[in-house]
From TrEMBL, chains A, B:
Organism in which the protein naturally occurs: Georgenia muralis
Every Nucleotidyl transferase domain range: 8-291
Lineage summary: Bacteria, Bacillati, Actinomycetota, Actinomycetes, Micrococcales
Single GO term (MF): mannose-1-phosphate guanylyltransferase (GTP) activity
Keyword terms, alphabetized: Isomerase, Nucleotidyltransferase, Transferase
Pfam family, one: NTP_transferase
Biological process terms in GO annotation: GDP-mannose biosynthetic process
Protein name in the entry: Mannose-1-phosphate guanylyltransferase (GDP) /mannose-6-phosphate isomerase type 2
Segments forming domain MannoseP isomerase/GMP-like beta-helix: 309-357
Annotated SUPFAM superfamilies: Guanosine diphospho-D-mannose pyrophosphorylase/mannose-6-phosphate isomerase linker domain, Nucleotide-diphospho-sugar transferases
Length: 366, 366
């Protein structure tokens, strides 16, 4: 085994509301096998990182309620490598805490943050991109991976690439300085982005030296940085629970994009490594259907499913026979206590159903 | 209690394939509560007939496999009033046997045949029409009830009314001589039928004197008549099982329409009593949806159902929450072992799904 490329941080959170009734509070997206691979998204994330981190090179940050299931799914994950949050405080607190803990354990290593609930079809392309990102990170940049957009998606934010990064001879063949980040655009804007050739999808992956990240944080969000430092100092000692319980609830809730990536990009400190790797955030059932197959897909036992005149249907059976007749693009998700019937076209509106169940107090279904 | 108007014959058969997965071989349509009334279609049929027949005035003809469940649903039905067929031999054998048994028990009484799996919203209109039909039947006609067509349906056969029936003073204010029967027409033909004002839907109800029916049968189908006579002679004695087992399997399979109604109409022996009574044969889920409500319907616990952007949806829950999003006219039928998802528009094609299951040998689902 050669030197690890980086220490990985895997924030494992998010409700996956638009994937209800598959995804539930107690069993969110990252804990599910959504590709039929026999491995959950979380497991696949760690599988993918293993060649880059070596054994024991990943920490998972997740809600305390999911800690037991995460350990069950990742038997090789050390007790110390699961950082359990008492309650979610958004991505900056999660990633910042992990970076601070890793800095105290290992010094100013390169860390990389990779969400636990994304799908990447081409692991080799992913590995190549992360290796280059780590190289650029060593030079002091905050580095993101920019996904080659193959269609003008309105579901993702974009990162705009500028001039090539100059590392003075070190190998960074594709990295570019980031000119800025954008929120999810409307369709016309997305078309325009695509036409320029400068925009990539922001997959929310960040690679950076631990000290660089903490310095940026201290500058941009000093109170949050101080709180995380206090917790990190106590993390591997006897005071963890006391400090965590006292400090964590008061931490600012903010995404890493807003806290650091955007302000640092504004002064040229962020780089992007473009990559095509079959990435998807599995944001809704339309996305899931595309991942599983272009034209008609079953997640589960295909022997249970009959479709007729229903091209592009996605069916998730749960032990019973499911017959779908005459609904192209149908989405039928069967679970023991709840059934969803919709179409790919309405995939984004599934959240509305969950909102209604929430309003009705049907918490047992959430 | 006044004199009964007629003795009723209720053929309880038919697979109801287009209502799968609600309707199954072991639990066909007539054994189900399809209106949410708390009474099955069979029970409602007998409820409706009670004022016309008086107690004990109905015989049910059904498959031997359904005999136990029919008795369970109809605890007041006498053992002798359930005629169990060893196997289905179509409607002429079923109705002919019942008429022959009733003729032997009661003489040349008026009998009326009414399917066990139809819905009639206006019981008073039904009763009025049957009373008139019985009056006309006493004069020797084979009388059918003709449903006022409120749209040019292609799902029903039609009966064409001709001149008024003249009973020489007896009250038959609306009855007309039948000029002929037609099979299910195409849409253009159905439009034409409606425009003439002469056509009614053939609801398959026949009212006739037992002896008249048997005489027609003897003339049109002498072998079938002889077979039924042999069985009827033995029915209420010790030889029933032996004679039934020997004769029944060889009986001709033919519908009463073809065996008698059409040829007898051709020589002026059939009359029709027109009636508007909210009749429906509940032939498929589109029909069921219309019966339950014009615009969105739940058969079962409505508290389990959430619909959004799905006008006219029909949902049949089975204990689990069902969410339907963005599919107008959706039909979602949940059962413990099978789920159907389709639309009203495709209701007629549900049979194709059952055919596929049959071809796959999935008999446990049929």
């Amino acid at each position: 085994m050669t030197e690890p490329v980086l220490h990985a941080i895997v924030p494992a959170g998010g409700a996956g509301t638009r994937l209800w009734p598959l995804s539930r509070r107690a069993a969110p997206k990252f804990l599910l096998d959504l590709t039929g691979a026999g491995r959950t998204l979380l497991q696949q994330t760690l599988d993918r990182l293993a060649p880059l981190t070596g054994p024991g090179g990943t920490v998972v940050v997740t809600g305390a309620v999911h800690a037991e299931e995460v350990h069950r799914q990742l038997p090789d994950l050390g007790e110390a490598d699961l950082l359990a949050e008492p309650a979610p405080r958004d991505s900056m607190a999660a990633i910042g805490l992990a970076a601070a803990v890793l800095q105290r354990r290992h010094g100013d290593v390169v860390v990389g943050s990779f969400a636990a609930d994304h799908v990447i079809a081409d692991g080799t392309a992913f590995e190549r991109a992360v290796r280059e990102a780590a190289e650029v990170a060593r030079a002091g940049y905050l580095v993101t991976i920019g996904i080659e957009a193959d269609h003008p998606s309105t579901a993702f934010g974009y990162v705009r690439a500028g001039d090539p990064v100059d590392l003075g001879g070190a190998p960074a063949p594709t990295a570019r300085v980031v000119r800025g980040f954008t929120e999810k655009p409307d369709a016309a804007t997305a078309e325009r982005y695509l036409a320029t050739g400068e925009y990539r999808w922001n997959a929310g992956m960040f690679v950076v030296r631990a000290q660089v990240l903490l310095d940026h944080l201290a500058e941009q969000r000093p109170e949050l940085a101080a709180g995380l430092a206090e917790i990190a100092d106590a993390w591997d000692g006897p005071a963890r629970a006391e400090v965590l319980g006292r400090v964590w609830p008061g931490l600012e809730k903010i995404a890493i994009d807003h806290a650091i990536a955007e302000p640092v990009a504004a002064r040229g400190g962020v780089a992007v490594v473009p990559a095509a790797m079959g990435w998807d955030d599995v944001g809704d059932f339309a996305s899931l259907a595309s991942i599983l197959a272009g034209d008609g897909a079953v997640l589960g036992d295909a022997g249970l499913v009959i479709t007729e005149a229903s091209d592009g249907a996605l069916v998730v059976p749960a032990g019973r026979t499911v017959a779908v007749l005459g609904i192209p693009g149908a989405v039928v998700v069967d679970t023991p206590d709840a059934l969803l019937v919709t179409t790919r076209e309405h995939a984004q509106r599934v959240k509305g159903v969950v909102d209604r169940l929430t309003a009705q107090g049907r918490t047992e279904l959430l």
